[in-house]
Amino acid sequence: MQCVLYILSCRVEAEGTININKINMEYFGIVADEILGIFVPILVYWVYYGMYLLLDLKIGENYRLHTKRDEMEKNTVDKATVIKGVNRKGSDDVDGDDNNNERSMVMTIIILGWQWGIAMLVVDTWQYLMHRYMHQNKYLYKYIHSQHHRLVVPYAFGALYNHPLEGLLVDTMSEALSFFVSVVLIFFSFATIKAIDDHCGLCLPWNPFHIIFKNNTLYHDVHHQLYGNNFNFSQPFLVMWDKLFGTYLPPTTPHCVPSN
Ligand SMILES: [Zn+2]
Ligand SMILES: [Zn+2]
């Protein structure tokens, strides 16, 4: 528990200014730090996908956005290829530093909340701009981003199925930018979970992401359809850039389709 609190704690300089870029990792050391950085995002990805796999098996028939037949017929890539494509995605290093001064938990939570909001804004802004440009630039779309759109009927573990260069330019770069303002490890894990959720293909009525975010499974599903290919570039949290730049297309799926 103490280790967890140290991960969450922010460094406070002796003169009283708060250095929000650093994470105290003194309980882990460099080796543990690298192991965490490599394995936590991968673990989060597959554990969260596992939850959706179980949900799909148990209650998927009532909540699927597309039929299983559509998944088989419309997707232009098989699942084995998607798994291979996802597993090559790397993870992020986390910097460590000493921390001799600790703030109260209240102060820590306030700082974390602020960092969280700014990190979401940074990730969303970068990903919107890059994502939209990859659609506008025919070369980038044809040779890079079209790989992700081979999934017309998205499923959870296809969330990070994309070209390695897209992974670098969109995902890794946005995470690197948010590194300067965020609580890195837990924020990245949260962003990973959100990306999986956006591709899960189920419209579960009690899904908290669907209540909190307008940018959710239904919203991103529109972008994967041929008619929505030039809309809903925003990801993974907000919809404001789509609304501001006229690329917002609200989901029209009135209810889930029955599986067959
Ligand atoms: Zn796209
Ligand atoms: Zn997608």
Keywords:
mainly alpha, three-stranded mixed sheet, 5% strand, 3 strands, 2 domains, disordered N terminus, 260 residues, binds zinc ion, globular
Radius of gyration: 19 Å
Instruction: Please provide the ordered H/E string of secondary-structure elements.
Output: HEEHHHEHHHHHHH
Q: Tally of extended strands?
A: 3
Bound molecules: zinc ion
Task: Look at the structure and give the mean pLDDT.
Answer: 77
- Kindly name the structural category: mainly alpha
How many strands, what sense, and barrel or not for the largest sheet?
Answer: 3 strands, mixed
Helix content: 55-70%
The residue ranges in which pLDDT falls below 50 over 5 or more consecutive positions are: 1-31, 90-96
Beta percentage is under 5%
Strand order of the largest sheet: 1-2-3
